[in-house]
Amino acid sequence: MGKVLILKSSILDKYSNSNKMVDYFIEKWLNENSENNITIRDLAKSPVPTLDNELLDAICKNDVELTERQKKALDLSNSLILELKEHDLIVIAAPMYNFHIPTQLKNYFDFVIRAGITFCYTELGSQGLIEGKKAIILTTRGGIYKDTPSDLLTPYMNLILNFIGIKEIEFIFSEGLALGNESVIQSQNSAYKTIDNILF
Ligand SMILES: Cc1cc2nc3c(=O)[nH]c(=O)nc-3n(C[C@H](O)[C@H](O)[C@H](O)COP(=O)(O)O)c2cc1C
After folding, report:
1. What's its EC (predicted)?
2. Residue 155 burial (C-beta neighbours within 10 Å; 0-12, 13-18, 19+)
3. Pocket residue to mutate for ligand 1, from 20, 96, 138, 140, most atoms within 8 A of Cβ
């Protein structure tokens, strides 16, 4: 399946459940692939800055003289996009925080979603320019929200990835992680089983 890009976004460091799922995924990948062609980007440990007026000018306008802060932001945006383009399978650890994705992951999308580079507008509407990729979303939650209106994360991830052209998307859920030990064990085992069954 080529090269794998893993995006982590948990702020819970060594207590992170989504990072545990990532570790399990990596173990499976390395068992089935002779090459270690995995890139890991931890968006909590190396955060992408929050987009503001100054940084927006840097990544959207071509005709402005850039400040040092803007140059750094533009370089980061360009390198994140290049990294995304260079990988075939994008694994995104997406914990649910306040019914949505972590700010760290949203900031990443704000830096990679750029008109004319990762999407464009045509007479027929918008068109994604990141094609030929597959995404696997490892999503962890304290409660149980799958297939309910309170799960804003799943439709958002579908929408945003589709928007830039990533159409093949698989979700792996680990829910009920705040509902006691038994629930945690059941939830993790079920998620690991689903990871075991991924066909590369
Ligand atoms: C700031 C914060 C907000 C949270 N919000 C929710 C929530 O809205 N719904 C939910 O089910 N769990 C919520 N949780 C629980 C997390 O989803 C749960 O701890 C999960 O394990 C997070 O993944 P992680 O351990 O990889 O960070 C929240 C946790 C934190 C730290």
Report:
1. 1.6.5.-, 1.7.1.17
2. exposed
3. 96
Counting from 1 in the atom list of ligand 1, the atom nearest the Cα of 93 is: 26
pLDDT digits (tens, 9 = 90+) for 68-94: 999 999 999 999 999 999 999 999 999
Pocket around ligand 1: residues whose beta carbon is below 6 Å from it?
Answer: 10, 12, 16-19, 95-99, 140-143, 145, 177-178
Residue 188 Cα, ligand 1 centroid: separation in angstroms? Answer: 15
What are the tens digits of pLDDT across the range 90-126? 999 999 999 999 999 999 999 999 999 999 999 999 9
Give 198: exposed, middle or buried? Use CB within 10 Å, 0-12, 13-18, 19+: middle
Q: At what angle do helices 181-196 and 17-32 cross, to 10 degrees?
A: 30
Nearest CA to ligand 1 atom 24: 16
